[in-house]
Amino acid sequence: MAIAINVRADGDSSSEVEQLWDQVAAFEDEPSMRTLGYRPHFTLAIYDSLAIEEDTARQAMLSAATSEVQLRIEFRRIRWFVGPPLVLWMEPADDVALRRWHASVSAAIDPAYCRLHYRPGQWIPHCTLGTRIIDGRRHDAIAFAGSFNRSISVLFDVADCVVFPPVRVVAEHKLPAGLP
Questions:
Q1: Quick check: helix, strand or coil at residue 180?
Q2: Organism's domain of life (predicted)?
Q3: pLDDT at 179
Q4: 163-169 long-range Cβ contacts below 8 angstroms, 24+ apart
Q5: Prediction pTM value
Q6: 48: how many CB neighbours lie within 10 A of its CB?
Q7: Among 3, 100, 87, which Cα is nearest to 45's?
Q8: What is the DSSP code (8-state) at residue 114?
Q9: 2-173 maps to which CATH number?
Q10: Which uninterrupted H or E stretch holds 143?
Q11: How do residues 144-167 score in pLDDT, each as one tens digit?
Q12: What residues contact 72, with CB distance under 8 A and at least 6 apart?
């Protein structure tokens, strides 16, 4: 089991991301994001559950979220992690707030306990679209990513702490609306 600290989108604005999940699923051996049973999100940190306690992660999440408001994030590009397997993800246009959140979580829990790709200097803010791209569809998936030419705006309105697999929310904090 693992523990993750996330910012997720619970509202209707995430529907376009979920539609992209369905499109990306055509390149996968099974639809990874729908199977996950969890909303579009940014993961700020992942820890092995033997390394830290759930309460420690919950406190770090609450500490990071306490003075924050909902995040309106714009996406204009689909990118990929080479893998294997190839992973498609959406790149945020402006990630200043996300980096602040990540720094707050990293300050609350020693990054040495965090999985490598989520540590300071390694973390790349991303909203995952598909994690199970099959090798035979790799080039098609990259072409799909390269052809994306629109803008999607999503409101991330909940900070949470989850354990997985399967995903189970152990704590959440609904974020207040920001200035109009």
A1: coil
A2: Bacteria
A3: 65
A4: 163/1, 163/2, 163/3, 163/4, 163/49, 163/54, 164/1, 164/2, 164/4, 165/1, 166/37, 167/36, 167/37, 167/38
A5: 0.95
A6: 12
A7: 3
A8: B
A9: 3.90.1140.10
A10: helix 138-147
A11: 999 999 999 999 999 999 999 999
A12: 153, 154, 155, 156, 178
